DNA sequence: AACGGGGAGGCAGGCTGTAG
DNA sequence: CTACAGCCTGCCTCCCCGTT
């Protein structure tokens, strides 16, 4: 719902745009004849989330009121909305602003996946991962992340795999789902554990076994494909359609 | 330096077949 | 019809390479 409010009642702090407003952009908006689209304001604080340039343009035009769309939510979510709005339209944020914003979102929403934060802040997922690594400074990460689909995915399922492999050894006739429930992992993960055991492999994946202290990956061929490992460890069939 | 693209491997939850 | 089983789908992180 759009309402008209007094410009004097609004505050403008905590913008993701660290360099402030662009005077040329404000001027361009001010001289345009079109009515300014509504700005977005955090209801509980009166802080402008999206529309600083429009607000300044309205002031130059001599307006005392401006049309506003209110946002209900906490300050952290308001900042996320501010970043998202400034990335998707209007005057784009600088790369530095985007990275700064991503760091703040990592701090306020640590459970969000790199891709979710990347899509909000307008930088690459790899850059988000790098910012997260630096921010954590060696501290252990949270145990799981929430993705675009809203699903929670663990970062390290080793403990569940260990439990599953033990159960499979002791009770080979248990179903995947029975084991999955006890080990608190998905049936698909249990199946992978079982398949690895049937092939005589370690039930823990290579990445998980090393827990971040990776042995070097095999070098890629000129075509970009991974060379197979010298020992029998065939790549898992990736189902894609 | 930053990013896009692509491959590999891993995961949760939905889907579908089947037995009782 | 219901419960259970395994398979499928789509998303994840990590990594590397080429491009901008």
From TrEMBL:
Spans annotated as Disordered: 1-21, 134-158, 191-241
Positions with biased composition (Polar residues): 9-18
Entries under SUPFAM superfamilies matching the protein: ParB/Sulfiredoxin
Domain of life: Bacteria
Basic and acidic residues bias locations: 140-152, 191-218
Domain ParB-like N-terminal: 3-87
InterPro entries for this protein: ParB/Sulfiredoxin_sf, ParB_N
Protein name (Swiss-Prot/TrEMBL): ParB-like N-terminal domain-containing protein
Organism encoding this protein: Streptomyces avermitilis
């Amino acid at each position: 719902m759009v309402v008209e409010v007094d410009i004097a009642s609004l505050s403008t702090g905590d913008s993701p745009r660290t360099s402030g407003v662009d005077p040329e952009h404000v001027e361009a908006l001010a001289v345009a004849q079109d009515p300014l689209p509504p700005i977005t304001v955090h209801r509980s604080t009166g802080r402008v989330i999206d529309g600083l340039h429009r607000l300044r343009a309205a002031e130059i035009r001599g307006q005392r009121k401006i049309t506003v769309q209110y946002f209900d939510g906490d300050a952290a979510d308001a900042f996320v909305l501010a970043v998202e709005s400034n990335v998707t339209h209007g005057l784009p944020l600088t790369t530095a602003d985007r990275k700064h914003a991503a760091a703040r979102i990592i701090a306020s929403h640590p459970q969000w996946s790199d891709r979710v934060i990347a899509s909000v802040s307008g930088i690459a997922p790899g850059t988000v991962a790098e910012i997260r690594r630096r921010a954590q400074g060696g501290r252990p990460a949270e145990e799981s992340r929430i993705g675009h689909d809203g699903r929670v995915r663990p970062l390290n399922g080793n403990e569940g795999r260990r439990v599953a492999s033990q159960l499979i050894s002791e009770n080979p006739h248990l179903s995947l789902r029975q084991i999955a429930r006890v080990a608190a992992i998905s049936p698909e993960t249990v199946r992978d554990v079982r398949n690895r055991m049937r092939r005589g492999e370690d039930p823990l994946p290579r990445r998980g076994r090393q827990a971040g202290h990776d042995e070097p990956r095999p070098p890629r061929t000129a075509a970009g494909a991974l060379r197979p490992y010298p020992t029998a460890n065939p790549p898992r069939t990736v189902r894609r359609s």
